[in-house]
Specification:
CATH class of the largest domain: Alpha Beta
Largest sheet: 5 strands, antiparallel
Length: about 575
């Protein structure tokens, strides 16, 4: 008997029956003819692919579903079971089969389903299995004995350490009531009451042990309890207490070491000079130390800006507080905010789980030294300005402000006034920083300090390197004084350290110094001649002479002098400071 005889009716009714059967299938069904045109497209296909049957039937398969290569089955003449492909954002699993009629291939049919959710569940299960494996490995590697029971007091987990101590196997006791396995236990009571018990003494197999029992919940209800034996015998507690006491002593020692590292290293006595300009700056610095006003220190690299910052802090009433140093040029821009202001836990990927205090918080009650302030990005300058105005910080990822009591000292080798005019540095921040300004002269402008500086540097170096006494010959001192020192005092120290490593003699001769000093001698006279024609030098010298003359005529009255010069009084103060004009002469 044939299907048509069972169904009855016409050919059209047979087709309707066939279409109804195909549409009732939960999986998607698509068939194509030998030309690759769609001849079957059931309702499940509509739902899975979001394409209406009317827009699919009769059209080439690649036009309707560009992602598929279904038509290739016709050329390969091979079925494709278990075929995976991705259509839009869906993972599709498909069985593709050739359709044969009277011995000839007349098309192909694909039965498919969306397995995106199944894959997601599979991945979640795999992750859960991995997590479970890791958790079990952690529990089994623990030194303490660990046991887990359900809310009826039946054992669900017993770690390796506890198995070895009790002399039993986990598989032999799983599902047993805790009281049948461990003596003097209260695990079943905690699993019922939901009240934890920490540090209780429990006697097991003749040993007094310290045990803790902690309930855990699931869906708001107590689901069981975890028990942990902290020590195999209470005697170990005394040994551990002594060890802990020793560790606390070490911790206190390191805390004190860290505090000492945060203190300033240098005082004004470490600033060695006979130069009038430097003596004046030391006096200004000592007066600045008496207040908490912001100090701006300008000068070329290696002139001793940080030395002055240390000295101001050490001479101030904040000397017992922290001295926190921040090099604004050395910290990556994306980390600068979190370094300065700190962050709360979870503020960003990789953040410390407990959060972190920023440099400003660490400097509370002390001084923060912002070196290379000219390198600070403009967006950070806005936030720094707020700190200077409000004396409070807000951690990254935090919602509350933290009051701070700090003294700010900033330093730069840049011309901030020029940067302000170029829009590279905020004017309002510049004025906030430029309350007390120290402009440190370069070493080439105080060459008479070289003998004193060299002697002090050599003394420190031989102590650091554990060497015998060293001193410079007269010719060596002359060679040093004829050099222009682009690297300033830092370069001088470098030259001297190199020299004492190259000679075992007590006296350092010119031959022990870098060759650049000898080459420089031949250029000195030529350079001095060229400098006489340098327009910038001529303008500066003319400006200095004019200011001195006007100050002399006004008997040192800077307000009157500024009026005569046609400039603002603040500009005159800055120029006097910048050019190192000694006001005691007027």
């Amino acid at each position: 008997m044939e299907i048509k005889d069972l169904i009855g009716g016409s050919k059209e009714e047979l087709l309707n029956w066939f279409e109804a059967i195909v549409d009732s299938v939960h999986n998607g069904v698509i068939a194509i003819n030998n030309d690759g045109r769609i001849i079957i497209f059931n309702q499940s296909s509509e739902s899975l692919l979001g394409i209406k049957k009317g827009k699919a039937l009769g059209r080439p398969i690649e036009k309707v579903i560009p992602e598929t290569d279904f038509k290739d089955i016709l050329s390969s003449k091979k079925d494709q079971p278990g075929y995976h492909l991705k259509i839009k954002d869906k993972e599709i699993y498909s069985n593709r089969t050739l359709i044969s009629y009277e011995g000839d291939v007349v098309g192909a049919i694909a039965v498919f389903q969306d397995i995106t959710e199944l894959n997601r569940i599979k991945c979640s299960l795999e992750r859960a299995e991995d997590d479970l494996g890791i958790l079990e490995a952690i529990i089994n590697s623990a030194y303490e004995g660990i046991i887990i029971v359900d809310n009826e007091g039946r054992i669900t987990k017993l770690n390796q350490a506890y198995q070895e101590f009790l002399g039993i196997k986990e598989e032999n006791v799983l599902g047993n009531h805790i009281t049948d396995v461990i003596e003097n236990t209260r695990m079943h009571i905690v699993a019922k009451s939901g009240k934890e018990e920490i540090g209780h003494v429990q006697r097991i197999q003749g040993y007094d042990m310290i045990a803790s029992r902690i309930p855990f919940k699931r869906d708001g209800r107590v689901a069981g309890a975890v028990g942990k034996v902290l020590f195999q015998d209470i005697k170990e507690l005394n040994a551990l207490a002594k060890r802990l006491e020793s560790l606390e002593d070490k911790l206190d020692y390191y805390k004190n070491e860290i505090k000492s590292m945060q203190k300033s290293k240098y005082s004004f006595d470490n600033i060695i000079t006979r130069n009038k300009r430097m003596e004046y700056l030391k006096e200004v610095g000592m007066r600045a130390a008496e207040s908490s006003s912001t100090v701006l220190i300008q000068g070329e690299s290696g002139t001793g800006k940080e030395l002055f910052a240390h000295a101001i802090h050490k001479a101030s009433h904040r000397k017992y507080g922290a001295f926190i140093r921040v090099n604004c040029a050395a910290i990556p821009e994306n980390l600068l905010e979190s370094e300065l202001f700190g962050y709360e836990k979870g503020a960003f990927t990789g953040a410390n789980a407990k959060g972190k205090a920023g440099k400003f918080e660490l400097a509370h009650g002390g001084t923060i030294f912002l070196d290379e302030i000219g390198e600070m990005p403009l967006d950070m300058q806005v936030k720094l300005l707020r700190v200077l105005q409000e004396r409070e910080v807000e951690r990254v990822g935090g919602g509350k402000t933290i009051d701070i009591d700090i003294r700010v000292i900033a330093a730069t080798n840049e011309d901030l006034e020029e940067m302000v005019s170029e829009g590279k540095f905020r004017k309002d921040l510049y004025y906030r920083l430029n309350v007390i300004r120290l402009s440190i002269p370069p070493l080439r402008d105080r060459l008479n300090d070289i003998p004193l500086l060299s002697k002090a540097i050599l003394k420190n170096l031989v102590e650091e390197l554990d060497l015998g006494p060293k001193e410079l010959s007269t010719k060596s001192i002359m060679a040093l004084m004829n050099y222009d020192w682009p690297g300033n005092v830092r370069e001088l120290r470098n030259f001297l350290e190199r020299a004492i490593n190259l000679t075992s003699e007590r006296i350092i001769h010119p031959s022990h110094l870098p060759d650049i000093l000898g080459a420089n001698q031949n250029k000195v006279s030529k350079i001095k001649k060229e400098e006489n024609w340098n327009l910038k030098n001529i303008v500066v010298q003319t400006e200095v002479n004019t200011i001195k003359q006007v100050l002399k005529e006004t008997d040192g009255n800077r307000t009157e002098a500024a009026k005569l010069l046609g400039i603002h009084r603040t500009s005159l103060y800055n120029k006097i400071d910048s050019y190192g004009i000694d006001m005691s002469n007027f």
